[in-house]
């Protein structure tokens, strides 16, 4: 996506990324560590990915959770919770966060990423990208 008319010529490009807080039966949230070689490597985030042209955010999450974690998620199991809006140096990120408590399959890191199930009260102990940090308080209130 590009900046729309009415914005300054130096406006940042808008990037839409969908993220998912997978919540297990014990109320823990899945965190994934960005692998080496990727931007923000080593930081912990919620699984998800860039919304492709023609895709709805829910479709993105279904695709990304299958590719990244090897699980199947139904659209009806993705509940929108909140969103993050954050300007990085070269783009502006808009990231809806969904909560999912039901999926099929066993969660595994298929792209070499470390995974951890984290209690909401401990999520601040994990260094995260700036866009993800404000989402933690919303999750802690929910869970």
Report on this structure.
- This protein is of the alpha+beta class and 143 residues long.
- It has one domain: Nucleoside Triphosphate Pyrophosphohydrolase (Alpha-Beta Complex), CATH 3.90.79.
- 16% of the residues lie in helices and 30% in strands.
- It has two helices and seven strands; from the N terminus they run ββββαβββα.
- A four-stranded mixed β-sheet has the order 4-1-6-5.
- β5 (79-87) and β6 form a beta hairpin.
- The longest helix has 13 residues, at 57-69.
- The radius of gyration is 15 Å and the shape is globular.
- Residues 1-6 have low confidence and may be disordered.
Compact overview of the structure:
This protein is an alpha+beta fold and 143 residues long. Helices cover 16% and strands 30% of the residues. The protein has helices at 57-69, 133-142, and strands at 13-22, 29-33, 44-45, 48-50, 79-87, 91-100, 115-118.
Walk me through the topology.
Blueprint: E1 13-22, E2 29-33, E3 44-45, E4 48-50, H1 57-69, E5 79-87, E6 91-100, E7 115-118, H2 133-142
Describe the structure using short key phrases:
disordered N terminus, globular, 3-stranded antiparallel beta sheet, 2 helices, alpha+beta
Structure annotation, total helices: 2
Question: Which range does the strand content fall in?
Answer: 25-35%
Kindly report the average pLDDT value. Answer: 92
Write the H/E string, N to C. Answer: EEEEHEEEH
Count of separate structural domains: 1
Helix amount, in percent? 10-25%
Task: Report the C-alpha radius of gyration, rounded.
Answer: 15 Å
Largest sheet: 4 strands, mixed
CATH superfamily, please? Answer: Nucleoside Triphosphate Pyrophosphohydrolase
First-last Cα distance: 34 Å
**CATH fold-type name:** Nucleoside Triphosphate Pyrophosphohydrolase
CATH architecture: Alpha-Beta Complex
Q: Give the low-confidence spans.
A: 1-6
Inertia-based shape: globular
In terms of quaternary structure, what is this?
Answer: single chain
